[in-house]
Amino acid sequence: KHCGCRSCNSPFPSPFQLAALERQVFDFLGYQWAPILANFLHIIIVILGLFGTIQYRPRYIVVYAIWTAVWVTWNIFIICFYLEVGGLSKDSELLTFNISRHQSWWSENGPGCVRKEASMSGIKGLDNHSYISVIGCALEYRYIEVMHSSFQILLALVGFVYACYVVSVFTEEEDSFDFIGGFDPFPLYHVNEKPTNLLFKQTYL
Q1: CB neighbour class for 195 (10 Å; exposed up to 12, middle 13-18, buried from 19)
Q2: Where does the pLDDT of residue 156 fall: very low under 50, low under 70, confident under 90, or very high at 90 and above?
Q3: What is the pLDDT of residue 11?
Q4: How does it sit in the membrane (predicted)?
């Protein structure tokens, strides 16, 4: 009964889910546990919003719209983290919950980066260890992470506007739909009655 707005539902999942999955993959490769959890929750909310759009559940879409504000805030934090704003340091272990010293996957695998390992066996106390250096990167990894987060913010803003549009369409359909007589403002059965004076005249004759 709500096929009028189904045509606007199909574009909802593709860019949002693909962008979230792409970021999840690279965060997994870099063992960034905090972003991994945030991305996982984001994917769940996006699926919930998609389900609400297809199954006509405005409340689920509202949940997605509210989540976009949280998602924008999180990505702003990530941008500040990698740009070292407000005392944050990109070399800290904050994103790994201080359980590992891993950094972003892009720090060693960015465009043009060459990874070199130098043995440190000649230094006392560092036998069997190696020093890893990365040279030749065309773009520093922190700027790649900033671009990722900026793109996520852009998608979140687009998703928020689209979610508000879909909710407004559903609300208008609910207001205009009559659950007894459909969209017909007249009763289901309409009896044409003759005027009283005409009936009286026929009876008199």
Answers
A1: exposed
A2: very high
A3: 41
A4: Multi-pass membrane protein
Percent residues over pLDDT 90 in the chain:
48
For residue 37 the two structure tokens come to 């959890």
Residue 129 has pLDDT above 60, yes or no: no
d(CA 35, CA 66): 19
Phi, then psi, of 134 in degrees rounded to 5: -120, 125
pLDDT band, very low/low/confident/very high, at 178 (cuts 50, 70, 90): very low
User: Can you list the pairs that 76-82 forms with residues at least 24 positions away whose Cβ atoms lie under 8 Å?
Assistant: 76/149, 76/153, 78/35, 78/145, 78/146, 78/149, 79/146, 79/149, 79/150, 82/142, 82/143, 82/145, 82/146
**Mean local confidence (pLDDT), 145-161:** 95
Under 8 Å between Cβ of 10 and 25: no
Cα–Cα distance list, 189 to 86, 186, 192, 195 (Å): 71, 8, 10, 19
